[in-house]
Structures are given as structure tokens and as C-alpha cells.
Amino acid sequence: MRIVIAEDSVLLRAGLERLLADAGHEIVASLGTADGLLDAVVAHRPELAIVDVRMPPTWTDEGIRAAALLRAQHPGVAVLVLSQYVEERYAGELIAAGGGGLGYLLKDRVADVDDFLADVERIGTGGTVLDPEVVAQIVVRSRQSVTLGSLSPREREALGLMAEGRSNQAIAAQMFVTEGAVEKHIGSIFTKLGLAPVDGENRRVMAVLAYLEGNPR
Fold first, then answer.
1. Can you give the pTM of this predicted structure?
2. Hey, what long-range contacts does 36-43 have (CB within 8 A, 24 or more apart)?
3. Cα–Cα distance between 105 and 46 in angstroms, integer?
4. Strand locations in the chain, DSSP E?
5. Dihedral in degrees, nearest 10, Cα atoms 141, 146, 149, 154
6. How far is it, in rounded angstroms, from Cα 198 to Cα 183?
7. Is the Cβ–Cβ distance between 190 and 200 less than 8 Å?
8. If we measure between CA atoms, which residue out of 198, 60, 46, 202 comes closest to residue 120?
9. What is d(CA 166, CA 182) in angstroms, rounded to the nearest whole number?
10. Which of helix, strand or coil describes residue 116?
């Protein structure tokens, strides 16, 4: 996979370059600021951009604003946002914009190399990966009221396992049912929560947000 990295920390940027290159990816550009991100995307046509949230010159929101602009101007490029902190407003806006190929992870997740590389692959191929802490904080700020009472016990169980980040295969194993049965449960969940079949990956994320809001931690 062709990847652009925008990260102001020299050590972290070098670590990401080595980690991703060792996994067989091609780092086509590596930047210390967000300013050249869009130009690098146009010049190198990557499949994925990994972007830090807080970058020079103000170390506030340069990176994530560049990520949002990249999503708008180049929807075919997947974006993985890495952050030391959760920026609820911008994370929520990125999710609400819809579409796959989106990740938002806290930097300490990079320490689990296997999981991080799996997340990179999933995002780069059109999937959505959100850090559990990001999801939790978005839910805290959300004012949307969602009723989960219409879900059956098995549907609630499946949705709870989805909220833990489990795949359909893992959910099926936990519930002792087939993957086909899990797909039926999830389809029913989407219908009952009023999630239109525009983008399957985004519907999965929004269903989890609904579950967490109805079951605050």
C-alpha cells in the first residue's frame, strides 16, 4: 500500500516509516507539518494518509483540519488520524461525513504492532476503525436520543459485541450461531435504528454509537 505520513514527532514518524515498510508498505512521502499534505497526495497518489492531529505552527488542530480537507477533496484516499488526545468535535465531523477508509486512533495503540498493522490494512481497504476512547467521548458529547428498546435480546447482544470491535465471525463464535445469523441480526439492528443502507461500514459505526449512548459507561 502507498502511504503518506504527516507527523511532527521525528521519532514517531521514523518509527512508523520503519514499521510500515517492514510490513511491506511503501512510504511515498513523510512530512513534519500538515502544510504539504494535500500537495503530497496529489503528487504521489497514495492509498492511505496517516495524519497527526496537532502539528506546527500552533500545535492545535492543523493536522485534523488537513485530514478533513483531504477527505473532502480526495475521497478515494483513506485517512488514519493519530492523536495523543481525543478531539471530539473533529472526530465526530469526520464520522458524520460518512464513507469508509477512515480511522481515528490514539497514539498509544501503535504500541500493539499487530493490531495497528491490521487496522492500517482495514482502513486502507475501505474499512472504518475507531479507538474505543474516541467513541466513548463522542457519545458523551452527543445530544442524540436513541431508543434501543425495540431490539431483541439477541440483537442487543450482537450490538454489544459489535461495540467491543468484534468481527461478524467473532460475534458468531461468541453467540454460538452462524455468520449468516449474525448478518441477519445486524441487518435487523440497522433497520430498527433507522440507519439507511447508504454505507455499510458507516452504519456499523453509527449503530455502535447508538448502543454506547444507550448504555453509558
1. 0.66
2. 36/6, 37/4, 37/6, 37/66, 37/70, 38/66, 38/69, 38/70, 38/73, 38/74, 40/4, 40/6, 41/4, 41/70, 41/74, 41/77
3. 20
4. 2-6, 26-31, 48-52, 78-83, 102-106, 128-130
5. -70
6. 17
7. no
8. 46
9. 12
10. helix
pLDDT, tens only, 4-33 = 999 999 999 999 999 999 999 999 999 998
Residues in the chain: 217
What pLDDT digit, counting tens, does each position of 89-133 carry?
666 667 666 667 888 888 887 888 999 999 999 999 988 888 877
3-class secondary structure, 3: strand
Confidence at residue 215, expressed as pLDDT on a 0 to 100 scale: 61
Phi/psi at 144 (nearest 5 deg)?
Answer: -75, 135
Q: Identify the structural domains of the chain with CATH numbers, from first to last.
A: 2-131 (3.40.50.2300), 153-214 (1.10.10.10)
User: Can you say whether the dihedral through the CA atoms of 114, 105, 20, 125 is positive or negative?
Assistant: positive
CA distance 187 to 172: 14
44 — pLDDT class (breaks 50, 70, 90) = very high
What type of residue is 117? Answer: L
Chain segment 129-188, per-residue pLDDT in tens: 888 777 666 655 544 445 577 889 999 899 888 887 788 999 999 999 999 999 999 989
52, 8 in Cβ contact below 8 A?
yes
